[in-house]
Amino acid sequence: MSDSPLPKKSNDKPEVQFTADKIGHWASKQENPFAEQNRKAAARKQREHEQAKKATPIVAIILGIAAVVAAVGGLVVLIVFLINSQPKPEVVEIAGSSAQDIADYRDILNNFYNQDPYATTEDRIQNIENIVNGTLDSANGKDNSDAVLCAQAYLYYNNGLYQEVVNVGGRIDVGRLDDGQKANIYEAMANSYYMLGDQENADVYYSLLLSTPVGGAGYGG
Asked: What secondary structure does DSSP assign to 146-161, as a single string?
């Protein structure tokens, strides 16, 4: 064992080049481990925001259209409800097909025709059309349809509505009328065509009138 003294450990520390002025520079180079995730999240939110801005006008238009459709649909339902809730007029019946039945039905129509003194002629005609159509839709009206139309034609004739007379008269199956009823409708048609200036058709119906056994018996019962 040597008596030589052990070498003394040096208490001198190596110089470290670590100064305060480098702290900020070093820290600026270090990245937050969540920075990338945060950037992606922020970018995603930005894209969603831009898409929402673009979609807002479209959504508003769609909602507007939906609101209009709903409003129109509601209005239609309301109108249908109001129409259906209105009291329906009673069907005017005709008793049969005799001359007296025709005259009685004609008188009923005449009361409806003159019901409103302020109504226009067009409104009066439309009212009569509605009543007659109601009668024709009934079982009794279908069985006596030609009598119904005769009464309607006589009503129009008595009120000087000659075009309406020929319109209705052309729908009558005269083969289902008796001789007196035929004479009545032939006379009404002949006179109406004459008043309309249609002499040719007027002559046709005058000839038919004269060919009946009771020619010239008058119209309307």
From this structure: HHHHHHHHHHHHHTT-
